[in-house]
Design goal:
By secondary structure, this protein is an alpha+beta fold. The chain is built from 7 helices and 17 strands. The radius of gyration is 19 Å and the shape is globular.
């Protein structure tokens, strides 16, 4: 992150499918909420202007807040969440405090294409993108909308998956064959994670996903939507026109064990190949070894190094490398570790956008978790253009 202006941008220039741009924008911690929102809006607008990007190129935004219940209404009234009928944007609002103490930070994804991109909002929480005769479905803010503290995490998990499955069925696709990536956010992950995993497994089994087939790249992390009694919320990315030969899974069993070895159900990474590029969706990754054990317990600096090694090995298994990462989201259990982690990442990845947020991981011993998306050049002309 550029310390002087709070903006970091990285772009992938495609040869056949257009250009992709990823932005991380932060606010000055000492400002009020209204001032921070205004600052992020101004920095975002200036970044788009510098790249000559029209508002219609916006695809996805995740807005990280320190207090979603109180802050979301003001954010939704800003240009960060604004949209028109002709230009909907998939906006995710998540309570995960941006460190070292801001009230708001922004991750944004824009696509610049020589061909028209059609966008349509579906069923309230889903945005359908049509590009080069391919559909991309972004689903954000899936939650139970609970109005009383009586619905357990297992029931709420079923509700968010039911919402997604209904949207997929309307696009004549399904969870097992077409959903590429999910993000599951839980209040008090130390308590509610296992219940979510159990309920999720039921849905995966219905759609033919098990330890002998495959799962979905995912992050399960502490976070909250803007509703007081919601314990679970979810974002998802689905490709309804995905061909089986486009998808492969990222693994390196010399470094990381299969997730089934410790009774969870997600892919460590998923690669989606196109004619000129391959997207590498890296799930939430932590300091784990080939036996499934947490390594370097209590040492956050050694844990970040092991985590980055694990991500590097996942990328290498798909023909990519760490330099191909377009952005990182870094989840820290203890905000006191921020300065050391920030210094490490700034030195290692001066050209890569990243945001560090407070987000405890599913095992208390994990002090840090990292996820992101990598894009590497690909030359497979028979595959669809992105």
């Amino acid at each position: 992150m550029n310390a002087d202006n709070g903006i970091k941008v990285k772009s992938f220039k495609g040869t056949r499918g257009g250009n992709e741009h990823f932005f991380i924008i932060k606010a000055t911690p000492s400002l009020s909420l209204e001032e921070q929102i205004e600052e992020v809006q101004e920095r975002y607008a200036a970044s788009l202007e510098s790249l000559n990007l029209a508002p219609e190129t916006a695809i996805f935004r995740r807005i990280f807040l320190s207090d979603a219940i109180n802050q979301a209404p003001l954010v939704r009234a800003s240009s960060l969440a604004a949209e028109t009928k002709k230009n909907p944007v998939a906006v995710s609002i998540i309570q995960q405090t941006p460190l070292p103490g801001s009230k708001i930070a922004l991750l944004a994804h824009h696509i610049e294409s020589p061909h028209p991109i059609k966008k349509k909002r579906l069923l309230g929480k889903h945005v359908l993108i049509e590009k080069n005769n391919l559909r991309h479905l972004w689903s954000t803010g899936l939650c139970a909308g609970a109005h009383a503290a009586s619905s357990p995490e297992t029931v709420q998990t079923r509700e968010v998956f039911n919402d997604l499955i209904e949207a997929l069925s309307r696009q004549k696709c399904n969870l097992g064959d077409h959903c590429v990536r999910t993000w599951l956010f839980m209040k008090d992950v130390d308590v509610f994670y296992r219940g979510m995993v159990s309920a999720r497994r039921e849905y995966f089994e219905k759609f033919g996903m098990n330890e002998n087939t495959h799962y979905i790249a995912s992050t399960g992390i502490e976070g909250a939507c803007e509703h007081q009694f919601d314990l679970v919320s979810m974002d998802a990315y689905t490709l309804p026109d995905l061909r089986p030969e486009q998808m492969s899974y990222l693994n390196d069993f010399d470094y990381l064990c299969p997730t089934k070895d410790y009774n969870v159900t997600f892919e460590r990474g998923t690669k989606i190949a196109y004619a000129d590029r391959a997207h590498h969706f890296i799930s939430g990754t932590a300091s784990i070894d080939m036996k499934g054990d947490v390594v370097f317990i209590g040492d956050v600096m050694k844990q970040v190094e092991r985590t980055l090694t694990n991500i590097d090995r996942l990328l290498l298994s798909g023909g990519a490398k760490l330099d191909d990462m377009m952005y990182f989201i870094v989840y820290l259990r203890d905000p006191a570790d921020y300065e050391n982690i920030d210094a490490c990442l700034a030195q290692r990845f001066p050209a890569t956008p990243y945001v560090i947020v407070q987000g405890p991981v599913c095992r208390p011993e994990w002090l840090i978790e990292i996820e992101g998306v990598g894009i590497a050049p690909n030359d497979t002309p028979h595959l669809p253009e992105f």
